[in-house]
Amino acid sequence: MAEEGVKERTLEETPTWAVAVVCLVLLAVSILIEHIIHVIGKWLKKRNKNALYEALEKIKGELMLLGFISLLLTVFQDNISKICVSQKIGSTWHPCSTSNTKAKAKSDESLDYKTNNDRKLLEYFDPIPRRILATKGYDKCFDKGQVALVSAYGIHQLHIFIFVLALFHILQCIITLTLGRIKMRKWKTWEDETRTVEYQFYNDPERFRFARDTTFGRRHLSMWAQSPILLWIVSFFRQFFGSISRVDYMALRHGFIMAHLPPGHDAQFDFQKYISRSIEEDFKVVVGISPTIWLFTVLFLLTNTHGWYSYYWLPFLPLIVILLVGAKLQMIITKMGLRIQDRGEVIKGAPVVEPGDHLFWFNRPHLLLFTIHLVLFQNAFQLAFFAWSTYEFSITSCFHKTTADSVIRITVGVVIQTLCSVAI
């Protein structure tokens, strides 16, 4: 009975019907997912959503990368688990305190002692070494007075975490795009307003006005705009009341038309549809996971060390960054208004804003998009790590020190998701 409790059956000892059923289910699920992706791709092509189709291709690429990582983890699982390090090195940088680990080991020692001895006897008398896959197997480095670099079971848990992380990242990007498109629905009303007689009269190109008396001027050309500190403070709080107001939308629309279209095309141009296509292009960038982003994933895993208290400060890093990004975007709009006033106190027609690379950090507009991308991924990492650690180790494990820790992770994750959908 003891031998049956620890022995792992190979395929030669497994019923063929069991193998066939498992393979059939896996094939059915894989074919179904591939068919769904194919149908979505055809639907996007039919509606000329080229940017979203390319984003879908990137998702397929990420799934392929995930499958390749899974294959490597499976093939080299035994080789990695056979790499031994000294106990001194193996006892450093643990995610949980050593006292908690030893207490748990003592509580399980009485249950595992007989099983481990039986397993060693089996390995000794078994002419063919048994392959331990995704099980809490015997540590081969123990006899050498060492510990495994990463055990076979630990590699299995890491395998699951990578899958959960990729899943959360893709779902979060889709949610961000969906919330962004919902937000833009009210822009359609503003776009329709530009075709009314009242809008044409108010924005008569032959009309002279003071820049500060325009609606855009009254919003951005106040005294506080002259002070960098006050400008940061006002811009920081403005992002909580909508990233783009009606006044800003009208000014940005007019500035874009004046810069890119010939005169007389104001009424025919749909700026809201153009912005929608631009966001789809940005989504194509955000949904991908670059090598730089994967490097940050490794750094995030490294911070999960006992004594670093990363469960308190790490969730707030993406929140602080996305708030700075939102404030910076508000500042850019205000600075474009200040440039209007610098060109003269009196303007003819509607105020014309002129965006430029110099308004962005380090004169690189794409840096903002990369920052949002990184924030989205780090937020996906936090939520995925919470879900994975809860599934693998339960909600009462050392990965969740207190109830406040869990509440902080979930609350901050939802807030960041909402702010990213506004900023992108």
Automatic annotation (TrEMBL):
<feature type="transmembrane region" description="Helical">
    <location>
        <begin position="283"/>
        <end position="302"/>
    </location>
</feature>
<feature type="transmembrane region" description="Helical">
    <location>
        <begin position="17"/>
        <end position="40"/>
    </location>
</feature>
<dbReference type="InterPro" id="IPR004326">
    <property type="entry name" value="Mlo"/>
</dbReference>
<comment type="function">
    <text>May be involved in modulation of pathogen defense and leaf cell death.</text>
</comment>
<dbReference type="Pfam" id="PF03094">
    <property type="entry name" value="Mlo"/>
</dbReference>
<feature type="transmembrane region" description="Helical">
    <location>
        <begin position="308"/>
        <end position="329"/>
    </location>
</feature>
<comment type="similarity">
    <text>Belongs to the MLO family.</text>
</comment>
<keyword id="KW-1133">Transmembrane helix</keyword>
<keyword id="KW-0812">Transmembrane</keyword>
<feature type="transmembrane region" description="Helical">
    <location>
        <begin position="367"/>
        <end position="388"/>
    </location>
</feature>
<keyword id="KW-0568">Pathogenesis-related protein</keyword>
<feature type="transmembrane region" description="Helical">
    <location>
        <begin position="61"/>
        <end position="77"/>
    </location>
</feature>
<keyword id="KW-0611">Plant defense</keyword>
<keyword id="KW-0112">Calmodulin-binding</keyword>
<dbReference type="GO" id="GO:0006952">
    <property type="term" value="P:defense response"/>
</dbReference>
<feature type="transmembrane region" description="Helical">
    <location>
        <begin position="158"/>
        <end position="179"/>
    </location>
</feature>
<dbReference type="GO" id="GO:0016020">
    <property type="term" value="C:membrane"/>
</dbReference>
<protein>
    <recommendedName>
        <fullName>MLO-like protein</fullName>
    </recommendedName>
</protein>
<dbReference type="GO" id="GO:0005516">
    <property type="term" value="F:calmodulin binding"/>
</dbReference>
<keyword id="KW-0472">Membrane</keyword>
